[in-house]
């Protein structure tokens, strides 16, 4: 039972959202029903018309209701293959990671070489650049055989840092000083160094929900707390929710994926990125921008990282060649001009430097134009895989299943009927030699029990198809 309570510290518009959501969930308001008019709702709830309007607009953004011109607001009909994001009943609170044992089982599963790899986000393996990288490495070895066996400098090989700077110029028209780029051991170390440069144990870090499980593990390993910020499947982090979180908690940093987030696959529009940057400046909070999928939109258009939208905001952007070229090379990078001193100290202390041979190979790969050519060939393969996987899910999973609509990357996010527990499905699928990523590992507070992430980042095969059929049949049986 909910009613507006003006002495509650929860924002009034948020209380109106909860009130309407509760009515939808309990069936008092069914699909197609008209909501009370703004004026009527304002009178009955004892709040202002703008407050009700703000709540309705937010519910519309969450795709729970729709406005019809000249008519009012109506409860949406759930559509097949249309991802309905669970509406939060309240903002998250800072929490410790709550799914560590499951996460460990998932890692055991996804690293097993004999399983159909639907659990691991590995886009470049859909069309590996093996030959071009092999040729690049051979060129490097013949040019600089002895040097390539030595240590790289702490912040990385100058030629690679220049190539990365050039790539930003070429793809988003941004100018970066190579001195503001540090090469890391994959995107994961870039995230680690960034977190350690700006926060300490006990600090609160804001994350999208759902979010990349590796990020949650990192926050946990460093003794920090994660607070989940609602994320809309169309536009990314909900900025009014973020404001509320920043008002409520002493957030040290926000770790958001602005382009092709994992697992939702959402890209934040540029106007929202600008608002995000302004908000973080207002609250004096750091943004750690996870941009490891930036190059992988199917349309080839690379959205501009938030990093380049402000000279004054404190932002660290993390990138990686793991998703686009070779995860085994373990080469990523970060871009920052505010925190380079701390990053240099931490990088030296933790790993001294990153593998020089891999750095020189990637520098050659980029300089030869082969990286760009490889991306041009990879994107359509991923797009085709996404279409095939979406079509098979629509055919073999229960009709109530809803899915994301990937516009890049290599993962599909599924919401299954409410009674399906994807942790159990994970155990069953491992016995059937299939790996999947159960929803719970994408939230520190165990949300997403009936959600599932499937990867299409591998060469499509008969085995892939029979694995999807098997999963669909299994979910149908449980359901
Ligand atoms: C969103 C996101 N960020 C960072 C990483 C880590 O990337 P890397 O393999 O380069 O360490 C991953 C890998 O899955 C990821 O999905």
Describe the structure.
By secondary structure, this protein is an alpha/beta fold. The protein has three domains: 64 residues, Orthogonal Bundle (Arc Repressor Mutant, subunit A); 132 residues, Alpha-Beta Complex (Aspartate Aminotransferase, domain 1), CATH 3.90.1150; 221 residues, Type I PLP-dependent aspartate aminotransferase-like (Major domain) (Aspartate Aminotransferase, domain 2), CATH 3.40.640. Helix content is 42%, strand content 14%. Strands 4-11-10-9-8-5-6-7 form an eight-stranded mixed β-sheet, with helices on both faces. A four-stranded antiparallel β-sheet has the order 12-13-16-15. It is globular and about 80 Å long. Bound molecules: pyridoxal-5'-phosphate. Pyridoxal-5'-phosphate (PLP) binds next to α7.
Key features?
479 residues, alpha/beta, Arc Repressor Mutant, subunit A, Aspartate Aminotransferase, domain 1, Aspartate Aminotransferase, domain 2, eight-stranded mixed beta sheet, four-stranded antiparallel beta sheet, 42% helix, 14% strand, globular, binds pyridoxal-5'-phosphate
Short description:
The protein is α/β, with parallel strands linked by helices and 479 residues long. 42% of the residues lie in helices and 14% in strands. It has three domains: 12-75, Winged helix-like DNA-binding domain superfamily/Winged helix DNA-binding domain (Arc Repressor Mutant, subunit A); 100-125 and 373-478, Aspartate Aminotransferase, domain 1, CATH 3.90.1150; 151-371, Aspartate Aminotransferase, domain 2 (3-Layer(aba) Sandwich).
